[in-house]
Amino acid sequence: MDRSIDFHALCALYSVTDIALITPLREGMNLISYEFLACQDAKRGVLILSEFAGAAQSLGAGAILVNPWNIPEVAASIYHALNMSTEEREKRYLHNFLHVTNYTAQVWAETLLSALNDTVVEAQLRIRQLPPPLPVEEAIERYVKSSNRLLILGFNATLTDRVDTLNGCQGNQIREMDLKLHPDLKETLTRLCGDPKTTIILLSGSGRAILDENFGEYNMWLAAENGMFLRSTKGDWMMTMPEHLNMYWVDSIKHVFAYFTERTPQSYIEIRETSLIWNYKYADVEFGRLQARDMLQYLWTGSISNASVDVVHGDCTVEVRPFGVTKGLTIGRILGEINNCKSISAPINYVLCIGHSLGKDEDIYTIFEPEFPSRDISIPRLILSDITNPFGRSGSQKHTHELDLENKQNNNNDNDINNVVENGNRQSSPFLSKLTWNLLDLERDNYFSCAVGKTRTKAHYLLPTSDDVVSLLKGLALAS
């Protein structure tokens, strides 16, 4: 006869029970099996669970799964549970107990909200209007007229030679794994780097050795691994990563990536100092997507469930990196270091940002993009105190696809912005003058953000291939 039991009495009953027999014929969600495991710290009782129960998917490894229609099987399972060795009972209990304590309702809620947030971001990207092609002549004309310029360039698929061909010939994968600077850019980069009015930052996800090999001979700034490492080609590498950065998750991720590489032909792993990337660009498209989906589920429910990392799913890549590392966040730190080195002697009044970035890294296009009040008014927007430490945020949030830098800056500095622009005229701001000189003096028409080979982007403009980037840079070099 069914009847209600007081909660404390129910917990006591759970704790002294040898076997919990839970055999529904159809069930979606029931917490009895979880409650039983939570109360079995001393007894180490055995859970016999119907394979049709919702909990069978999560507790099946430690429980004895049965078909409730098969009465002899259920009877045999009860007998086995009563005569089970202490060692086996211990192993089964610990396996399920860890699952119950780690994957709580709070974790489930956070994962669900994070997935919903991802869906919103992806929907916004799908409906975003396609940006127009970069107005090359206008970009060159304004470059020439400006007095202090900043060029932020990506590397892979931006300054590299094209590896994709119309017939998809073999060998492209090997070429892409060994990144090389576009051969037509060497003389152009030498000219641009020799211009005292131009500062060039090569901001890439690639490692330090690759950037040294390709750009060590030019006078520019190199930012490796999305800005985690920085150096002027005249100096040594410095670390811009946060203090006490914990990389304990690397080994477990390597094992996961190795497993999926073995089962996905033509996929490969890129191992960097602060991140790991699994690339399946040259694998079978549909099979690669299925494997990537399985990998993401495995990562979030296992290897990195409690790690402070971001998992970034690109076009054909899965990247695991420390939490909060994006190109937009690290560019502030980079400019702060350049300012400290006195490499920039006057405010920058022209910015050209070109790259082929992952969706998470596209904040690089918006950090220089203020809401200008008019076409003819310039605002010093980049305030070093707000961005010198891009890792000030802490926590273990996952799937952080939208970085609300501008809202944070606007909330903190509304009064200062109002002081800077008043009645259409530039005014001095005590807050800004107390910090440092204005690093940017940028007008709307002197900022060009451009994505290479991507249509869903936050950039204002598009260029189809790296060959078009080469033509643009040649035009800048000749015009200057």
UniProtKB/TrEMBL annotation:
Compositionally biased tracts (Low complexity): 408-425
Top-rank taxon, per record: Eukaryota
GO MF annotations, alphabetized: alpha,alpha-trehalose-phosphate synthase (UDP-forming) activity; trehalose-phosphatase activity
Record GO biological process: trehalose biosynthetic process
Alphabetized CDD domains for the sequence: HAD_TPP
Cellular component annotations (GO), alphabetically ordered: cytosol
Pfam family, one: Trehalose_PPase
Region (Disordered), start-end ranges: 406-425
InterPro entries: Glyco_trans_20 (IPR001830), HAD-like_sf (IPR036412), HAD_sf (IPR023214), Trehalose_PPase (IPR003337)
Similarity comment: family membership: In the N-terminal section; belongs to the glycosyltransferase 20 family.
Protein name: Alpha,alpha-trehalose-phosphate synthase (UDP-forming)
Lineage: Eukaryota, Viridiplantae, Streptophyta, Embryophyta, Tracheophyta
